[in-house]
Amino acid sequence: MSELLRLTNLSLTYPRQTAPALVDITLSLVPGEKLAIIGESGSGKSTLARAIADLQPSGTQVSGEISWPAFGRPAQPGVDYGMVFQDPGSNLNPVLRIGEQVGEAAQRHLGLTWRQAEDVALDLLKKVQIPQPEAALRAYPHQFSGGQRQRIAIAAAIAANPRLLIADEATSALDTLVQAEIARLIQSLVTSEKMTLLFITHDIALASQLADRIAVMHQGKLVEIGPAQTLITAPASAYTRHLLDTYIDLDAAPRIALGAS
Amino acid sequence: MSALIRFARSPEGLAGLVILAVLAIVAALAPLLFPGDPLRIAGTPMIAPFTDPSLPLGTDRLGRNVLAGLVHGARASLIVGIAAAIVAVLIGSIVGTLAGFAGGLIDEALMRVVDAFQIVPGFLLALAFVSVLQPSLPIVILAIALGAWTGPARLARAEVLSIRERDYVASARIIGMHPLEIALREVLPNALPPVLALSAVIVAGAVLTEAALSFLGLGDPNIVTWGSMIAEGRAVLRSAPYLSIVPGIALIATVIGTYLFGEGLSAMLSRREQQS
What we know:
heterodimer, A: alpha/beta, B: MetI-like fold, about 75% helix
């Protein structure tokens, strides 16, 4: 099967920066797979996502190649990929109605009228399990909770049936319960709509549950990439092992000593 | 709906609204209250106010009804004030949005144009503009807007600089929206609230500028305005000061009403900001 996306020696330097944000990234995505990219803050994982989505600021130096072998042409934003962002407070435009924002991509790319796009938006809102979807179409973003806004943003991202869904820390700003719900929703949508998923997160546990493969990034470099299970149980690089060791759960030894000892 | 309730709860906003509403009603009903040309002779010249019940505010030195002039003058003041503010906010917010959103060279170029307009005093600019062209109502409106659009432009640009980094703008780019469409549809409406709060100040300023222009004889000569009434009264200032004082009070009331209304407006908008 031909790859959906291939990055070859991708390096990227932001304008007025000397240190590159991405160094020699080579990786590929096959259709239908779920790839998680993990790493600490500043490791370049969001930069990578934005570079794939062609969202880097003007003046950014990019070398290497981003190709979309499955399309045989440059990817078209909205149709070929959709993206969900981190901050549920700013991912929807506060002055536009939900129906408008969700239906926008469908109206734009599928050649629908606004009325048809509204029907599409209604279906999408049902799909992402927004309560009372008919009323939600006419509502504004501030009337929804963070988790619901993130669901709406997902609905808007997949409106034009993109092949690739990029989720850039889409669950990081939510509490654990809502996080699990959103992750489950993304997983089921990706499976039912036969999409490919690129999931950016700093949460190793979430990545290992959600993804088929995990890529670890550190200081702009791709440290390791492999099947989720193998990478978790038998990490090849020291950095991945370090990352795994720092994973906090309730069994872990406390790292911040309480009180003076 | 709740925004309207918040507006109604601010006392200054309510007071401003009442003053402006009275003025607007009077201005709208002017042809019914005082039919015919307010510049025609209505009685003997120089009747003092409150002496003749049929001419409650008296007449000026040509025998024209002062109250009729006042009522008809409210039309000119309000039309010029509001229209100039609309033109200024429209031009300013579009230029500011484009500058802030495009960034780089376009931003620099547009903001230098803004600078060029800002360093010339607005009144002088209006004066020059009107004296070069014919003094008619649209020209006066345009002349005042010419000096007032830079404030909204700067404000809109500053807002846009922060808004353009929000995720929904990136989302719009991902959808494949044209940058111009993103700027005008996604960014501009979000940058508007502070600009609208400023617009009340612009209306007040425009009313004053219009009065000053017609005081200097650069208003539309065919309509009666408060400024021209004050100028008319200046000749007999010592014997009949009321001819200048009465339209002056109307002018002050309008400006204060507009200002209070603006206060209420910004209270309403800022409380909405705090909420979200």
